[in-house]
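S1.2 Input.
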Amino acid sequence: MPALSDVPVVPTLPPLLDVLEDVQIEGAEVLPEVQQSLDQISNTLGSVQGASSSMAPTPNKVPDVKTAMDSTSAEITQALDKL
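S1.3 Output.
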């Protein structure tokens, strides 16, 4: 058997309860900020998702918008020419 003087010394650990209480307190202080960030991410994803679905028909409407702008421009030009 090895001599007791050759046995490594086990380091003493700090009281575990104190460490766990510190971690719990730090977690409680950060939790509202984490929840707020998650809410902001959810809101942003919701708005982006809504924007992408509302943008889908836009390319089909571009010719109509151009036609309406050309028509309005022609009407304004005629009205100004009469003045």
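S1.4 Remarks. The mean pLDDT is 76.
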